[in-house]
Amino acid sequence: MDQSAALIDNPHSHVTFGEGLELECGIALAPLTMAYRTYGTLSAAADNAILVCHALTGDQYAAETHPLTGKPGWWARLIGAGLPIDTDRFFVICINVLGGCMGSTGPRSPRDGGVAEPWGTEFPPVTIRDIVAAQAKVVTHLGIHRLFAVIGGSMGGMQVLSWAATYPDRVFAAVPIAAASFHSAQNIAFNEVSRQAIFADPDWRGGRYWVDGLVPARGLAVARMMAHITYLSEEALTRKFGRRVRRDPHVAPVDADAPLSLFGEMFEVESYLRHQGSSFVRRFDANSYLTITRAMDYFDVAMDHGGDLSAAFAGTRTRFCIVSFSSDWLFPTAQSRTMARALNKAAANVSFVEIDTDKGHDAFLLDEPDFDRTIRGFLSGCAEHAGLG
Amino acid sequence: MDQSAALIDNPHSHVTFGEGLELECGIALAPLTMAYRTYGTLSAAADNAILVCHALTGDQYAAETHPLTGKPGWWARLIGAGLPIDTDRFFVICINVLGGCMGSTGPRSPRDGGVAEPWGTEFPPVTIRDIVAAQAKVVTHLGIHRLFAVIGGSMGGMQVLSWAATYPDRVFAAVPIAAASFHSAQNIAFNEVSRQAIFADPDWRGGRYWVDGLVPARGLAVARMMAHITYLSEEALTRKFGRRVRRDPHVAPVDADAPLSLFGEMFEVESYLRHQGSSFVRRFDANSYLTITRAMDYFDVAMDHGGDLSAAFAGTRTRFCIVSFSSDWLFPTAQSRTMARALNKAAANVSFVEIDTDKGHDAFLLDEPDFDRTIRGFLSGCAEHAGLG
């Protein structure tokens, strides 16, 4: 199979920048292709654009049926006509991150932009700032100087912070959700285990799995399963699954008369996780997973400003709305509070909302009416201040 | 190499029961070999014995140099002359769990007790009750009817509860530490991911890795790394490692002039986890890991008593001291509190202590003076009530 040809024939809506992008690591990546989707209509003044930033395993299909999975967009609940991110009013942009695998330049892209083999593991390390710089090129390409709002959860929230710190004049309002200004030791540790799980897979082949048409499916599934636990709360797992069991079709009972009905059965939570793992590997590239988790680990806004987080936002006129979830232990409320304090110290306009929920980190993707009301209210208020029609 | 011969030549102190043990799954395991260590001297009345139960990856070498690693015993800090578990006063027993890999019958044992090949993945599923039943045979063999105390942390605490529920007349005092009366959905989920990590290793060979002299080292290391994160608190990880980096000797910097010194370096927490993973696989058997994690998942004391935890302890005269750690998120304080409430409902003699610490689940293995004082005080008080000299 001619991998390169398939790669060049990008099935996703995209724009290519011939001049490329110089990355923080010093490597110039050219050409640079960015895949994106838009919803709603850009106003004549180009002042109603909202950039929605996706999380680690998300992509640009935020508000429409996903072309690979056939499932609704990951924020279809929030983005649309009359919804909190109202497409009757706002022009919504969602861009596949640099290093991703849904049409933007990443480890699957041909190395010289032409017919060479894919980058694979040789794809240069990228940072959240690189990801944001690549997005900025798309935003400019769309004729937009200043975004009305940048909004995103988890790694999407990291991008929001990076936008606000790097391009303060291009962001009227910023909504970092379930995020932090740096990746914690615990989160780096979980990411490292997921990388090791991928490396342990025999089909990993040192990262050149595509040569033989393979994917390190088992390792990537293990990585996804582990990460998935961290996205939920203990309460949510208990509520959804508890200790309920189901018959494991692959295991015969040891002894039909055994007093414990458990043997030959599996816990529902196991079956659920296996499904999460196996469906993930059908849509995600392992080298992208490695690249993007690394970008998260590098993330530390304060580090770019002498270790002082408030200095990163000195003089900002952006309006911030920081959102956390009470049961999120991956990006706990304390980390959002640290952000809020630093922004207060920088005399920024900031509101901070902790949503009371037992759904854990993933709450930003789930039905959480208080959260929806918060987003709708903040965006409406900002639109009024910005003089949007 | 003649695997079987090596297996029969058990280098660990042990006792073999020809009649074996009938497991809860209905399978009779015969003969049954149990490896154990003792410290201190049994009194003439045989009333001063303390059974110390080890955790998932622990073993019987609780208070002496480990024969494989050369490190001090895992509870050398607590067990010894003049220490909280005072060997001048008590006779301390520690037994390698059934299903383990340090001399007790387990997946590495020859299948027919003789020259056949090891059980491997065909080793029957065991439960915490089976583990405790096998321990009870050793205790009887040592001439002890009633234990002065049973004490253990994590999975060791599960064994303590099972002892108290199954043999109430044989346990004067019980100290379950950092434990729970059932394994939660979140903990089952983490265990399942660790099992999948082992299965994903090419050297796993369907569980028959020993045939080719292999071990699924990468998968087992991933399992251990992930589990290790859950044993620590976010605070402990931050305190120990934060976001400090060190040069990765295996990775050349992408660009020596790169503005980010991070490329070509790794976070200290990553290096630490890799070390934890690789040192673990040298001393632990993958099939034992699978067997024991399964036993933990099955654990639910209430289930054996119609779903009523207090019924499991009805009429008990055992004195309980339940200990939890404030930053333990694997076996959170709330689960210990549930135990304490059920024991109160059963009119049991129970005290409940939450130790304030940021060290997480592993605090029971670490230097924590408040914890040491709690153990010493409870055992002394009980010894007085028991009329021990």
From TrEMBL, chains A, B:
The lineage of its organism: Bacteria, Pseudomonadati, Pseudomonadota, Alphaproteobacteria, Acetobacterales. It catalyses: L-homoserine + acetyl-CoA = O-acetyl-L-homoserine + CoA. Substrate binds at R224, D362. Belongs to the AB hydrolase superfamily. MetX family. Homodimer. Residues 48-366 form the AB hydrolase-1 domain. Keywords: Acyltransferase, Amino-acid biosynthesis, Cytoplasm, Methionine biosynthesis, Transferase. This is Homoserine O-acetyltransferase.
